[in-house]
Amino acid sequence: MELGPGDDAAVVRVPDGRVVASSDLLVEGRHFRLEWSSGYDVGRKSAAQNLADVAAMGARPTALLVGFGAPPETDVAWAEALCDGLRDECDLVSASVVGGDVVRAPLVIVAITALGDLAGQPPLTRSGARPGDVVAVRGRLGFAAAGLALLSAGLEGPAELIDAHRRPQPPYDAGPEAARLGATALLDVSDGLVQDLGHIADASGVRIELDGAALPVPAVLGPDGRHHVLTGGEDHAFAGTFPPGVSLPASWRVVGRVVEGAGLAVDGDLYSYGGWDHFS
Asked: Interior CA angle at 253 toward 214 and 156, to 5°?
């Protein structure tokens, strides 16, 4: 960072000459509920989902710009905790909050723009998957969705599921790592594994076939674990395609393959993209 908050705009160094940019909007009652999440939780979650988008391009996150809207009766301590959460999540990837804006609003709104540096490497996109590639994932799947289901039912445990909804834990280094491993396509799982891998299938003009037995479904996810893994979003795990024969570290789990065709299948059956849709 060349120049931080305090002037009309910040100045961020761009060693690569290109800037990876992404933005997200979080709205009270839609993305978080004040009775379920603290200001600190919301700050961590807001930063995480944006930093993960940058990492999914194979880039290193460098900066966040934050727009914050809130009712006038909002507790100042809650807003300060939000800022603490943003800072602490950024610290995980050595990024900074470099500026933003504050406005009066009828409910709490957090709008974030994330910036990142490709360090001279080409970006990882959704359109590079080719028949013969393997499909692999890294990170937790279904935990945040299971946590949301528990909270919606008035339950407060298991704690690791509740915490996963409140504060996702993206494996940020997975993005640059995937680029080094030769990934052909990559994204973070924000709307559900099936829906997001479906985006890769559509953009690449291929069919993705998932092996249900290879999917990680920990017992803690409960009886709906498979459903949470396939359709639950907001864990911000990483899912991508890799050339055949690539040697993947143990942290990556091969869950399927890319073939000729279109769409996405689980155990041979075409699967409707059943992830999150804001306008459904």
From this structure: 80
**What span, in angstroms and rounded, lies between the C-alpha atoms of 166 and 32?**
8
DSSP bridge pairs for 11: 3
Say what angle helices 143-152 and 159-166 make with each other, to 10 degrees.
100
89-133 pLDDT per residue, tens: 999 999 999 999 999 999 999 999 999 999 999 999 999 999 999
3-state secondary structure of 163: helix
Name the CA dihedral angle for 50, 56, 176, 185, rounded to a multiple of 10 degrees.
-170
Q: In what order do the strands lie in the sheet with 96-104?
A: 20-27, 109-117, 60-70, 96-104
Q: How many CB atoms lie within 10 A of CB 46?
A: 25
C-alpha 8/C-alpha 16 separation (Å) is: 24
CA distances (Å), origin 210, targets 168, 194, 230, 249, 271: 24, 9, 10, 19, 10
Please report how many Cα atoms fall inside a 13 Å half-sphere around the Cα of residue 88, on the Cβ side: 15
